[in-house]
Amino acid sequence: MAQEKDYLLRHPKDPAALLDVLRDAQSRYGHIPDEAVSRIAAHLKLSEAEIRGAVTFYHFFSLTPRGASTVYLNDSITSRMKGRTAVAGAFEEEAGCRFGEVSPDGKVGLFPTSCIGMNDQEPSAIIDGVIFPGLSPEKARAIVRGLRAGRPPGTRSPPSATAPISRTSSGPWCRTTSANRARSFSGPMNPERPCARPPA
């Protein structure tokens, strides 16, 4: 894992750097593999149990692969009132898997998540770090087709298929207006901080 060694060397050998290291590992591998757990533990002088505990506590980290692209669909009451069930069904039908699973080809993972701060524009989702508000079943299907075709979130084909508004990690804003409440997030999501961002 030369790639892993490179990013580990960018971080101090300080347990306080744990979340930053995990964020880097998740970004590179799509999950935190077993070998990464061992190396991170050695680098930060923590036990493997402590590393695994942190990974399983934070919502956007995972010990198992989550797909080449990940869809986190808001599961709030507001989202349900505004049509989440139909949108979720469209995601599942197009991806060929249920929420909490990865598609058979490994390209798309579907996962529920709590509030992402878009209650005025539900149903909404975070897809590979990009917020998509105002989703419909048609948009959901178009998004999955785009991910399978290798189009990054934020590119639109056909033009009206998707409507991303921002990135939650690094990268340019896809569309910024005063009405969309685009925001920067400050850390990985956990049950007590439901509106934080996924790892970069």
Strand and helix map with partners:
Blueprint (H helix, E strand, L loop, with lengths): L1 H8 L8 H12 L4 H11 L3 H10 L11 E6 L2 H5 L2 H12 L5 E2 L5 E6 L11 E3 L2 E3 L4 H12 L17 E2 L33
Parallel strand pairs: 1-3
Antiparallel strand pairs: 1-4, 2-3, 4-5, 5-6
Helix pairs in contact: 1-2, 3-4, 6-7
How many beta-strand elements?
Answer: 6
Helix content: 25-40%
* Low-pLDDT windows of residues: 156-200
Number of helical runs? 7
Structural class: alpha+beta
> Roughly what fraction of the amino acids lie in strands?
5-15%
How would you sum up this structure in a few lines?
This protein is 35% helix and 11% strand.
Give an overview in words.
This protein is α+β, with helices and mostly antiparallel strands and 200 residues long. The chain folds into two domains: 56 residues, no CATH class; 99 residues, Glutaredoxin (3-Layer(aba) Sandwich). Helix content is 35%, strand content 11%. The protein has seven helices and six strands. Strands 2-3-1-4-5-6 form a six-stranded mixed β-sheet. The longest helix is centred in the N-terminal third of the chain and has 12 residues. It is elongated and about 50 Å long. It starts with a helix and ends in a 33-residue tail after the last strand.
Summarize this structure as a short list of keywords or feature phrases:
200 residues; alpha+beta; 35% helix; 11% strand; elongated
